[in-house]
Task: structure prediction
Amino acid sequence: MNTKTTVMAAIGGMLILGTFAFSPAPPPSERENNLKFLPKDISHDDLMNVMHSFEAATGMNCGDCHTHSTTDPNKMDWAADTKHKQTTIDMMKMVQDLNKQYFGVDGDFKTNYLQSQYKVSCSTCHNGHDQPNSMVTIPIPEKR
Ligand code: HEC
Ligand code: HEC
Result:
């Protein structure tokens, strides 16, 4: 095999692996969805923008929050409930509440989030990490 063939084979392999791990998510309008906080009629593009932004903010991937289908392990079950999905829903509510209460940003999460209206957002705390509380902080001085 020459270099070009090897490279093509490698790319082909990655593509197959990629499809294997994450079957593409169908638009929410075309299936029963299990959305509990985002609007049920959210467009596919808006939903994916939120998801990609969560990945960037927390350094996590689709598969960290979502799980494989129990009937077909080659497929993802995007609607299935997971621990990290529940935590994320709590985080979205917290972001909405604290911006409303302390920064006067009213309105729904989806619109404010996608238009970068929030003063405190996922990245404020997470900054690309899943566990913000393990990031280096200035030590609290001992009581004098
Ligand atoms: C940090 C966690 C997190 C990451 C990372 C993440 N998601 Fe999600 N995803 C969620 C949560 C939470 C919901 C449900 C939101 C709700 O209930 O309002 C969701 C919902 C969805 C849904 C709709 C499911 C339904 O019920 O119809 C799809 C599709 C989806 N995600 C795809 C993706 C894809 C594709 C990626 C990677 C590009 C991804 N997600 C990354 C947390 C995440
Ligand atoms: C005010 C700071 C703050 C904001 C804002 C925030 N988080 Fe968090 N998040 C935390 C802390 C702290 C933890 C760790 C909690 C623990 O250890 O129990 C955490 C944990 C998580 C986890 C679980 C990670 C793990 O590995 O267990 C996910 C997922 C998550 N946050 C997603 C989000 C998303 C998405 C947003 C924006 C919608 C967000 N967070 C906004 C502080 C924040």
Notes: The chain has a mean pLDDT of 87.
